[in-house]
From TrEMBL:
One of its GO terms (biological process) is base-excision repair, AP site formation. GO terms for cellular component: cytoplasm; protein-DNA complex. This is DNA-3-methyladenine glycosylase II. The lineage of its organism: Bacteria, Pseudomonadati, Pseudomonadota, Betaproteobacteria, Burkholderiales. One of its GO terms (molecular function) is DNA-3-methyladenine glycosylase activity. The keyword DNA repair applies. It catalyses: Hydrolysis of alkylated DNA, releasing 3-methyladenine, 3-methylguanine, 7-methylguanine and 7-methyladenine. Keywords: DNA damage, DNA repair. The keyword DNA repair applies. Residues 58-210 form the HhH-GPD domain. Belongs to the alkylbase DNA glycosidase AlkA family.
Length: 216
């Protein structure tokens, strides 16, 4: 993991961001246009690993706005967002916050993994991206997409390319192919110029679709 610097209470930003902006501006015509449009805004990591993964589960298959609404309701249920506190919540209260039965099952399984020590969160800083993904997908409800969101938004790994992300594919279509359909192969070809900062380029593609910063 790249070093990070703390910029506010419980909010971190990657120290590689400026280098990434320069690299992408030089290597990619679309990034040269997009990056200046968003000023000094950048990726931020807030909260702990459990909270980040829980937010990712809540956000699956719904819009950024809808996910924020459901998360705000859910996060208001426990006094503090911890695995142990989530395990104490009533299913009816979780359903009332807007969570589906399946997402409730996923959140409970996530809490159980953290509460029991079944995941090696303390070792993630020293593990490579693929090893972390392999461990995370062992938790119910966490597929490759969710694991990649965790790599980007919590560990702030610089070179993650989430090809299963609808927003990324849509944004590549809009910005590089005039709205024409885009295959995973097309996306990889575009992203070849982004390396080793695919996470950063992906963040700017998301912003091009929705000025509201994506956060987990």
């Amino acid at each position: 993991m790249a070093a990070t610097k703390k910029i506010a209470i419980e909010v971190f930003t990657p120290d590689y961001w400026e280098d990434a902006r320069k690299h992408l501006t030089k290597k990619d015509r679309v990034m040269k246009r997009l990056i200046p449009a968003f000023g000094d805004a950048c990726l931020e990591s807030r909260g702990d690993a459990f909270t980040t993964l829980a937010r990712s589960i809540v956000g699956q298959q719904i819009s950024v706005k809808a996910a924020q609404t459901v998360w705000d309701r859910f996060a208001g249920l426990p006094r503090r967002m911890t695995p142990a506190n989530v395990l104490k919540l009533k299913v009816d209260d979780m359903r009332a916050s807007g969570l589906s039965a399946r997402k409730i099952e996923y959140l409970v399984d996530l809490a159980l993994h953290f509460d029991s020590g079944a995941v090696s969160a303390g070792n993630w800083q020293s593990m490579d991206d693929d090893a972390i993904i392999a461990e995370l997908v062992g938790i119910r409800g966490i597929g490759r997409w969710t694991a990649e969101m965790f790599l980007i938004f919590h560990l702030m790994r610089p070179n993650v390319l989430p090809l299963d992300d609808v927003g990324l594919i849509s944004g590549i279509s809009k910005n590089y192919f005039s709205g024409d359909p885009v295959s995973r192969s097309d996306a990889r070809e575009v992203a070849a110029a982004w390396a080793p900062y695919c996470s950063v380029a992906t963040w700017y593609i998301w912003r091009s679709l929705d000025p509201l910063p994506v956060a987990y």
